[in-house]
Amino acid sequence: MATAAEVLQDLETLGDDGYRQRMAGFAITYEKAFGVSVGQLRALAKRLGRDHALAQALWDTRWYEARLLAGMVDDPRQVTPDQMDAWRAEFDSWAVTDTLCFDLFDRTPHALAKIDEWVTLDGEFDKRAGFVLLACVALHRKELSDAPFLERLPLIETGSTDPRNFVKKGVNWALRAIGSRKSPVLRAAALDCAARLAAMSDPTARWNGKDALRQLGKKARVG
After folding, report:
1. Contact criterion met (CB below 8 Å) for 100 and 122
2. Is domain 96-223 classified as CATH 1.25.10.10?
3. End-to-end alpha-carbon separation of the chain, Å?
4. Rounded distance, CA 93 to CA 102, Å?
5. What is the pTM for the complete model shown?
6. Quick count: other Cβ atoms within 10 Å of Cβ 168?
7. CA-CA distance, 92 to 97, in Å (whole number)?
8. Residues carrying CATH 1.25.10.10, the chain
9. Most Cβ neighbours (<10 Å): which of 116, 146, 158, 175?
């Protein structure tokens, strides 16, 4: 079993200062960052395997790449609601938010309950986490019925007027992900929701609706 100190040494070896500087162009700025690409992190995570204790130790280091890696190596079966809340409270970029939701939180049995809680929070990354988690559940949880997603479309409508960039894009992603599931019912419901938003006077809601209609329309033509 690897230790967090050993993993940090690996990350330091992989680090590229030029890559770290380029991260700023994607609104990812951390003092504690090595400059390791996501592809390299995924390769390292595959070698490490699932390790709940290591994930917590990596998270506690507060290094950017270590936190991404924590989401890749943690065991979703061992993740508790308290852990999800504690980690979410420290989200400070879209990259950490999205990676934790995409690689870990959406696979836990607590995901749906956390969506409902997090979309009501005030912080930009807290709220984004709720909508990104909804998007990731829609993308990955193929075993779920239509009901959980139909029940949460009103959350998207409520959140659609938040003009903050990272919330807005999270809302949009959630709507498009629901509409992209292999369900005619969900597709129709998502398109109806998008049409309602596109017709609203609020500019953020209108953008969300029009963009979702355009993206879902492209998917239909490709399909």
Report:
1. no
2. yes
3. 45
4. 14
5. 0.94
6. 22
7. 8
8. 96-223
9. 175
